[in-house]
Structures are given as structure tokens and as C-alpha cells.
Amino acid sequence: MNSSNRPITSREYKLMLNTDRFKDREEGIEVFLRLIEFLIKKEGGVIKKIQNKKEDEEIRLTSYLDTPELALRQQGYSLRLRDEANAEKRFQINLKYRSSDRYIAAARDLSCTYEKNDHKFEEDILPPFVSKFSHSTSIKTAEMPDLNKVKKLAAL
Hints:
The protein is of the alpha+beta class. It contains four helices and six strands. It has helices spanning 25-42, 71-74, 102-107, 150-155, and strands at 10-13, 60-65, 77-84, 91-99, 117-126, 130-141. The chain has a six-stranded mixed sheet. A hairpin with a 6-residue loop joins strand 3 (77-84) and strand 4. The two termini are 25 Å apart.
């Protein structure tokens, strides 16, 4: 298969939230959920409430990494490190290339030498219904990888 003809494996609708509205986390969540409930009912939808237990809450820390000059971002890449404290392989490293041009994003070489990696090609739909195409590779590991140098990241 031609890499620029890669099929979309997922589609995500991105919702951008203003962090200022969540300084008081519980209040921010309550206001947000009331707004969502209003919008769903306005469209004739029905809401099923699920009891959410505080102890079932997943805690994860997400960081975006780049060089001091923002070299990755300038080239259309993002590098995400996610720490999921309760997972067996708690660290996830994700390298993503995003472009408004589907074919440019699909053709980007994000091959990985790490034995178990996950490739995705997805369409992100951003407000107000603007498509961006993302090609990404992720790996999961139990140990925190050494990401202090781009050379070490490239070795992954």
C-alpha cells in the first residue's frame, strides 16, 4: 500500500476547554457537565447518569516535550510522555505528526524499532469543524525512558 494512501484508523472530535474555568476543579466539572446536559437535551438526546466513584478515577500525568527552540513543533511534530501510575507499563511515549493535508501526514515516516509499538492515522476534528490529520507512533514501557537528548529519543 502507498503510505500516502493510508486509511484513517480513528476519528476524534476535539473539545478545547479553558483551564481558567477549572481552578476550582469540582465546580468547573459541575458547570461543564450542566452545559453538556443542556446541549444534549436541546438536541433531543437522553443522558444516562453513571455513578462515578472517586476511587475509580484514573490519574495520569501528561507532558509535552520539545527542544528549547521548539524544533519539533516547528516541523509539525509533538512528543507526548504520559505517566499512568496504576498501569503495568506506566509510561507511554507518543510521537505525532499533524497536518491539514491528509497525504502529507500519511506519508510521514514514523517507523519505530521498539518491539511493540502502535501506529495510528487519525482525523482530528477541531472547532469549528476543521480537520487535521495525525500520523503517530506510541510505545509503552514500565521504565521511565531517558529523553534528555533527541539522540536517545531517536534510538527508540
